[in-house]
Design a protein that fits this description.
The chain has about 325 residues and is an alpha/beta fold. The chain contains nine helices and 15 strands. The strands form three sheets. Strands 3, 4, 5, 6, 7, 14 and 15 form a seven-stranded mixed beta sheet that branches. Strands 10-9-8-11-12-13 form a six-stranded parallel beta sheet, sandwiched between helices. It has a two-stranded antiparallel sheet with strand order 1-2. The chain is globular and about 60 Å long.
């Protein structure tokens, strides 16, 4: 079968590799229908292989996608057989050496990396969804466990920010969604958001300070960093924690007056869905995937789709820029 594979110099090439047919215990074989080229794919290609992460079979690449299960291994629940699933390959608490990347014709992954989709959904609409949906789900559980009662989402109109809104609504946790234009504000409000602030509004800082205090929004889910984080930290309520998970602002430095760390009891920490308690616990991960599957048919969880390419056009797909990822069609 055709597959996109990574070379030692971290560039990509198309290869013919053996197609999986007989999955090992806990795994499923999925006939791929669509795969998204996510921001993380670019980021991880630019860095050396992370320690502790198992190699993919045949050096295949790609973490996200969707397709139909055509074979299941031992210990896989029968509910997966023949079902369409959305995949986030890196999720499973079991770092399997039997995994195949999603940028191929047929992949093999652990079943806990998959969310079962209702039959009527289009695979392309969920070909890049689960990384963002799971991140939002896991963060909300972490924020609640840490004692927070309200959330600030600095990337309010991002895929993760939109998913967070829906999960938080079900948990009755208020979210302040920060956006950067009137158009984005309208889009998030259309999804049901009631607390949306536009950074281009001259009253943004004043409005943010008042609303964050009113809602006790002490958990900051930060996907921007840099200047925006520097701007809002002085206005955060006492006892706030900033969870840094993304760098859409370019990864620039942040600045804060050191006395604020004491006077506001402010904490800064990283957030990773790889290292979180849910991803590291098979039972919690299974419960999370079931919960996500029950809610997946919602506009907030769809993948924004960019242009579509065949596997042999991977170079052009990787060159696509913008919020909507390129989609690979095997």
């Amino acid at each position: 079968m055709k597959a996109v594979c990574v070379k030692p110099d971290r560039s990509l090439e198309i290869r013919d590799v053996p197609a999986p047919t007989n999955p090992p215990a806990g795994h499923v074989v999925v006939e791929m229908e669509a795969a998204a080229v996510m921001h993380g794919d670019h980021s991880f290609l630019r860095m050396p292989k992370l320690p502790g992460i198992a190699e993919n079979l045949h050096d295949t690449w790609g973490a996200s996608g969707a397709g139909r299960v055509i074979a299941i291994g031992a210990d896989v629940p029968a509910a997966y057989a023949g079902k369409r699933v959305a995949i986030y390959r890196s999720l499973s608490s079991i770092r399997s050496k039997e995994t195949i990347g999603t940028w191929c014709e047929t992949t093999q992954v652990h079943h806990l990396s998959c969310v079962i989709l209702p039959d009527h959904l289009d695979a392309k609409d969920y070909s890049g969804s689960i990384v963002n949906v799971f991140t939002a789900y896991a963060f909300l559980q972490q924020a609640i466990a840490d004692g927070h009662r309200g959330i600030v989402a600095t990337a309010g109109n991002s895929a993760t920010g939109r998913a967070l809104l829906e999960f938080a609504r079900h948990q009755n946790v208020p979210v302040i969604s920060i956006v950067r234009s009137a158009t984005a504000k309208g889009e998030v409000e259309h999804l049901g958001a009631t607390h949306v602030l536009d950074t281009s509004d001259p009253q943004f800082e004043e409005s943010f300070a008042a609303l964050a205090g009113q809602l006790k929004a002490t958990a900051v889910f930060d996907g921007i960093g840099g200047a925006l984080l520097t701007q809002i930290m002085p206005a955060l309520p006492w006892g706030s924690t900033v969870y840094c998970y993304g760098f859409m602002g370019g990864g620039g430095p942040i600045s804060i007056a050191s006395p604020l760390l004491v006077t506001k009891n402010l904490m800064l920490k990283g957030f990773s869905n790889f290292a979180g308690l849910i991803a590291q616990d098979a039972q919690k991960l299974a419960a999370a995937m079931t919960a996500i599957s029950s809610m997946i048919d919602h506009p907030a969880f769809k993948t924004k789709q960019g242009p579509q390419f065949g596997l042999d056009q991977i170079g052009a797909a990787m060159a696509v820029e913008g919020a909507a990822p390129a989609i690979l069609l095997p």
